[in-house]
Amino acid sequence: MMAVNRLFRTCPSTGLVYHEAAEKLIRWNAVAGVVSLLVGGILALLVTLTRWPAVHLLPADWFYLVLTAHGLDMLVFWIIFFEIAVLYFAAAVLLKCRLATPRIAWVAFWLMILGAIINNVAVFRGDSSVMFTSYAPMGAHPAFYLGLILFAVGALVACFVFFGTLVIAKSERTYTGSVPLVTFGAVTAAIIAVFTIASGAIILIPTFLWSLGLVAHIDSLMYRTVWWAFGHSSQQINVAAHVSVWYAIAGVVFGAKPMSEKVSRTAFFLYICFLQLASAHHLLADPGLTSNWKIFNTSYAMYLAVLASMVHGLTVPGAIEVAQREKGYNRGLFEWLRKAPWSHPSFSAMFLSLIGFGFLGGISGVMMGTEQLNLIIHNTIYVPGHFHATVVIGTTLAFMGLTYFLIPTLFRREMMFPGMAKWQPYVFGLGMMSFSLFMMGAGTLGVPRRHWDMTFAGNALGYEFPGTAYLMMGIMGISGIAAIIGGIMYLLITVGSVFLGKKIATPDFKYVAAKDGVAPKPAPQPAFGASGHGASIGMAGFVAPGTFVLALVFLTSFILYYFVNWKYLSTVWPLS
Amino acid sequence: MSALVPPQGVWWKQPLDRVEGTWIVIAFVWCLIMFFMMPYWHVFGKQNLSNEAYRTTPEMFQAKTQAMVDKFKVREETDLKIPVVAPPPGSDVYIIARLWSWWPMVELQEGKTYRLHLASMDWLHGFSLQPENINIQVHPGYEHVLTVTPTRAGTYSIICNEYCGINHHTMASRLYVVKAK
C-alpha cells in the first residue's frame, strides 16, 4: 500500500489544521499566482501608459503584444493559480483533511507552470498578438494554443484533486453534517471550472490543429460561440471563488455566521444552473443568431444568476452587520459599519471588493448583457471598464484581502510593512474604481477597446473624439497608475513577508518523512454549537436594517442607470 | 459558527430571515422587469438589431458591392480614390470590411430607410458608427442585413472596434448623411 502522508499542523493563532502536502501546494500555487500578477502588473503599466493619450508610450506592435500578454497573465494565470490555492484551502484546511493524491496535484501544478511559460513565450516571440480572445480566423503560433491547453489540463487535474479531497474528508469523517459554506462556494467554482475547461478544450484543440494546418477552416461565429462558453464561464469561476472569499473574510474578521445557510447555498447553486451558460451576452451584436436565442440565453428569462449575486451582495454584509450588532454595535442604522475595522486590510479589501463588484461591475454587466443596450456598448472601452470592476476589484482585491490572512497562518511569517498594508486596499481599490468608471465613461462616447491610437494620427478619414473622451482617458490613465501603485504595495508586502518576514513558530511541529500512519486519522469533528441571532438586535424586525438600506441604495442606482441607458438608446438611429 | 466551519443542525429547515426574504422578492421582481424590457423593446422600441443574415463568400459579397458602386458612384475621395456611393432610399447598401479599410463610402439621406449589408472579407471586424455609437460585429462568411434610418444630417465616422491585427487602429471611414432631396 502506498504511503499516505498524514502529517498535520495546527495553526496556533487561528486553530486551522494544515496537511503538510496541502500546505506546500497551496503556497506554491499562491506564489505562482503572485508571480503572474507581477508580470501582468508590469504589462498593465505599459498598457495604461499607452492608452493614456498624453503619454502614448509604446509603438503599435508592442502595444498589441503587451495587451495580449497582460490579458493572459492576469485573467488566466494569476487568477487560476490563486484559485487552485483557494480550492485546496477550502477542501484540505477547512475540512481538516489530507489532500488527495499530492503527487498528482504536483503534476497538475507543473503542467500549469509549463503551459503558462509556453504561452508567454509564444506571445513574446511577437507572432501571437491575437489578444486574450484569439478570435479565429486570426491565427497565433501553435505554441500559443498549446500553452493554454496544457495549463487548462493542469487546472482540470487540480479540480479533480479538490473533488477527491472532498471524498476523502467524507469517508474519513473529518467533519460532520454539511461542508462549510466557503467550501460549498469552492465546490461551485470547481464545478463551473470543469464545464469551462471542457468548453475550452472543444474550441482550443481544433484551433490548435488548425494552426498546425490539420484542420482546414474554423468558422468565426462558431469560434466566438464556443470560445465564450469558455471565456465567460471562467469569469463565473472567479465570481464563485471571490464570493466564497468574502464569506471567509467575514468569518475570519468578525466570526460572522451566514444569515441563512439555505439562502447562501441556494444562491451558489443558482450560479451553477444559470451562470456558466450565459455567455450568450458576448454575441448580442453578432449576425446569424436570432433575437429569441439572444434574449433567452442571456437571461434565461429570469436573470437568476443576477439574482444570486444580488443575494450574496446582501447576505455577506448582512452577516457582518449581525455579528457586529451582537457584539454590541447595535445603535442606529450604521454603527456596525462605522465601528468596523477599517484599518484591517482583509476587511477593507473585502468590503471595497463587494462595493466595487456590485455597483460598478454588476450593474454595468447587466447593461452590456441586455440585447438592445449592447448596441451602444459593444466593443467600446466600456467593456474593459466593466470587467476591471468585476475581475480586478471583485476577484483580485478579494484575493489580496485573503492573502493578508494567509501570510501568518499559511506562510507562518509576520506581515511586513503593516502600516502600508492598512492603506494598500484603498489605494488599489479606489484607484481601480476610478479607472473602471472613467473607462466606462469614455466607452459611452464610443472610444474603442484594444485600440492603439484614438487620435487616428495621420489618417485622412480618422474620427475626432470629443474632448471629454480625451479627458476621461487621461483620468483613466492617472487612476490606473494609482491602482498600479496599490499593486506594487501588495507585492512588496507579500513578497517581503513570505521571504523576509519574521518566522512564526508552530509549537510541537517538525517535518517527518511521510509514512502511512505517521499521524492517526483525525478524530471526527463535533458540530459547532452556535446560537442563532436573537430578536434583540436590529430594528423593525430586521436583524440587518443597515444592510437592507444599502441594498435599496444599490437597487435605486441600478434602476436609474438601467433606464438612463434605455433613454440614451432611444436617441440613436432606428434600426431593425 | 462562521462560514468556515460546518453549519450546525438541520440548516435547510432554518426559517428565512425577514431581511433576506424581502430582498429576494424585490430583487426577483426587478430581474423579471429587466427580462421583459428586451421583448418589450422589440415591440415598442425602434432600435433592435436585425435577425437577417445570410451565408456568403468574399467573392459574392465583393461582386454585389462592386455592382452597387458601378451604379451609384457620385465621386471619389482621398488619394486612394475611395468611391462615394449615393444609392436611392430604400435600396440595398453594401459596405465591405477588410484589413484595414471599409469600402466604399456611402452617402445616405436623412430620414430615409436603407438596407445596410455588412460582411468581412477576412477576419472579424467591428462596425462602430461615431458619434452615434452604434456597434455591430462583422464576420467573414456572414452577410448581415440591417434596416437603418439615419435621423440627422452630418458627417459620421465608421471605425473598427474589433481588434484585427497590427493596423487595426488605421481602419476608419466616413458615412455621409445629407438632407433629403
What does this protein structure show overall?
The complex is a heterodimer of chains A (576) and B (181). With 576 residues, chain A is mostly helical. Chain A folds into 3 domains: 23-257, Cytochrome c oxidase-like, subunit I domain (Cytochrome C Oxidase, Chain A, Up-down Bundle), CATH 1.20.210; 258-340 and 541-570; 343-453 and 465-502. Chain A has helices spanning 20-51, 60-93, 102-125, 142-171, 181-211, 220-254, 261-275, 291-299, 304-326, 335-338, 345-368, 382-409, 418-444, 467-500, 545-569, and strands at residues 8-10, 17-19. In chain A, strands 1-2 form a two-stranded antiparallel ribbon. In chain A, helix 1 runs parallel beside helix 3 and helix 5 (181-211) runs antiparallel to helix 6 (220-254). Chain B is elongated. Chain B starts with 17 loop residues before the first helix and ends with a strand. In chain B, 23% of the residues lie in helices and 36% in strands. The model of chain B has no long low-confidence stretch (mean pLDDT 95). Chain B has helices at residues 18-44, 58-72; strands at residues 53-55, 73-77, 82-85, 92-98, 101-103, 105-109, 114-120, 125-130, 134-138, 142-148, 154-160, 172-178. Chain B has 2 domains: 13-44; 53-178, Immunoglobulin-like (Sandwich). Chains A and B meet through helix 2, helix 6, helix 7, helix 8 and helix 9 of A and helix 1, strand 8, strand 9, strand 10 and strand 11 of B.
As a percent range, the share of strand residues of chain B is 35-45%
Measured distance between first and last alpha carbons of chain A? 69 Å
Quick one: how many beta strands of chain B?
12
Unreliable parts of chain A: 513-520, 525-533
Overall structural class of chain B, as computed from helix and strand content, comes to alpha+beta
Return the string of H and E elements of chain A: EEHHHHHHHHHHHHHHH
The CATH superfamily of the largest domain in chain B bears the name: Cupredoxins -  blue copper proteins
From the coordinates shown, what is the CATH architecture of the largest domain in chain A?
Up-down Bundle
Strand order of the largest sheet of chain B: 2-3-6-12-11-8-9
- CATH top level assignment of the largest domain in chain B: Mainly Beta
CATH topology of the largest domain in chain B: Immunoglobulin-like
Task: Outline the biggest β-sheet of chain B.
Answer: 7 strands, mixed
**What does the average pLDDT of chain A come to?**
92
**Whole-angstrom Rg of chain A:** 24 Å
- Average pLDDT across residues of chain B? 95
